[in-house]
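Action item from last meeting closed. Structure (280 res):
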């Protein structure tokens, strides 16, 4: 049900086999191509720095930063300092699906958009203690270990949510609830709806006021976030589902025809879907 490992990027099969694995990482390789994990991963940085692109956005992980990465998000590692050291808790996609809504169901949209935040010294110590407790459970060869781990992972999720909310309250970001709910709404509806009016109506606001609030909270317009998320999902399909045709992708996202879809994608990327898939 679990194992202590060393290198997440090389142990996909072991994660699938064991369900839950904890990795002590000191040798993360620099990658020139995107790495997409099918697993659910919690990462805690102890020392050093890692610079990467997360879903095409530049990010940096520093000591006491905690990251929550959901399956099928892409990571390109650009630089790793020589003293980089992190602990990763990886839950296989099968076990993640089995546990279902125990994992950050209310905050998934928040963590998918901004996957990491900084822990205070006390929060970091608490996370270290909890991680060690999970390690001990993983080592136990007793019947019912999966049930014990499920409880541990649920408690861990609640602890991280509490630390996250405490951090936001301290930094003054707790009022950004509309933008978080908006992002969640995009996840649920982007294949059918790409117009601001639809999302504004969900929150009982006029399109103008809705767009103003989103811009104030995020620095970008509502239209930007809708297009950003749609194009991100399309890029992933073009890259990791090579057998799916452009026409099928167009149909999945509700475009009236393939030509309209291609124009939409090119406005956002400068490339046609075919050019992007070919790596032009």
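Sequence:
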């Amino acid at each position: 049900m679990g194992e202590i490992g060393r290198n997440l990027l090389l142990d996909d099969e072991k994660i699938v086999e064991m369900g839950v694995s904890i990795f002590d990482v000191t040798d993360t390789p620099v990658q020139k191509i995107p790495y997409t994990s099918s697993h659910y991963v919690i990462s805690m940085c102890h020392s050093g720095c890692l610079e990467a692109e997360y879903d095409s956005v530049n990010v940096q992980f520093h000591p006491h930063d905690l990251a929550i990465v959901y399956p099928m998000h892409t990571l390109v590692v650009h630089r790793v300092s020589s003293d980089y050291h992190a602990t990763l808790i990886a839950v296989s996609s099968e076990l993640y699906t089995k546990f279902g809504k125990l994992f950050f169901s209310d905050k998934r949209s928040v963590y998918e958009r901004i996957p990491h935040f900084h822990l205070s010294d006390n929060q970091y110590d608490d996370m270290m203690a909890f991680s060690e407790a999970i390690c001990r459970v993983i080592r136990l060869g007793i019947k019912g270990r999966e049930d014990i781990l499920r409880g541990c992972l649920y408690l861990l999720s609640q602890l991280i949510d509490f630390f996250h909310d405490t951090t936001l309250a301290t930094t003054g970001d707790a009022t950004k609830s509309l933008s978080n709910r908006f992002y969640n709404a995009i996840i649920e509806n982007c294949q059918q709806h790409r117009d601001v009016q639809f999302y504004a109506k969900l929150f009982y606001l006029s399109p103008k006021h809705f767009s103003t609030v989103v811009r104030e909270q995020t620095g970008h317009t509502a239209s930007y976030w809708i297009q950003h998320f749609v194009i991100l999902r399309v890029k992933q399909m073009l890259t990791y589902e090579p057998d799916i045709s452009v026409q099928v992708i167009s149909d999945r996202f509700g475009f009236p025809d393939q030509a309209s879809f291609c124009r939409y994608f090119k406005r956002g990327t400068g490339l046609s879907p075919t050019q992007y898939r070919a790596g032009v």
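Note appended to the action item: The chain has twelve helices and ten strands.
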